[in-house]
Write a structure and sequence with these properties.
The chain is of the alpha+beta class. 25% of the residues lie in helices and 32% in strands. The protein has 3 helices and 9 strands. The strands form 2 sheets. The protein has a 7-stranded antiparallel β-sheet. It has a two-stranded antiparallel sheet with strand order 1-2. Helix 1 (4-24) packs antiparallel against helix 2 (34-40). The longest helix is centred in the first third of the chain and has 21 residues, at 4-24. The N and C termini lie far apart (53 Å).
Length: 129
């Protein structure tokens, strides 16, 4: 049971979830929503949906944290990372990728035999890469 003093907070966050879900065209249901869980933890909605990995939004990755990638391969003109092909190479030699839906830039590299990925160039023009 939710304490009485938290009911208003929960209602406010659920309203924000519903508004964001509708505005961004998200299909998530309330029982499986990473966004709702994020809001209930007191975190804000990101301006653009985060990249997905293994069918779930990866908020850590979108917020600039380094994550381990389990799968990366090229499929025609796109790059597939952890089951999602929303990526394209900006500079393959330097390991720079663009998340196509958001336009954000990320860097990938191998560290201790494991592939890493991190948002490192959120505002850098392509010409500087």
């Amino acid at each position: 049971m939710i304490p009485a003093n938290q009911i208003d907070y929960v209602i406010k966050q659920m309203a924000e979830w519903a508004r964001t879900k509708d505005n961004m065209g998200l299909a998530a249901d309330i029982m499986h929503s990473s966004l709702l869980r994020r809001l209930l933890r007191g975190k804000q909605v990101l301006p653009k949906p985060p990249p997905k990995r293994h069918a779930y939004p990866d908020y850590d990755l979108a917020e600039g944290k380094q994550v381990e990638v389990f799968e990366l391969f090229e499929d025609e003109d796109r790059v597939v990372i952890d089951q999602h092909g929303d990526w394209t190479w900006v500079n393959k030699k330097k390991g720079i990728l663009r998340h196509s839906p958001t336009g954000a830039l990320y860097r990938t590299w191998i560290e201790d035999g494991r592939r890493q990925l991190q948002k490192t160039f959120p505002e850098v023009p392509e010409l500087e890469l």
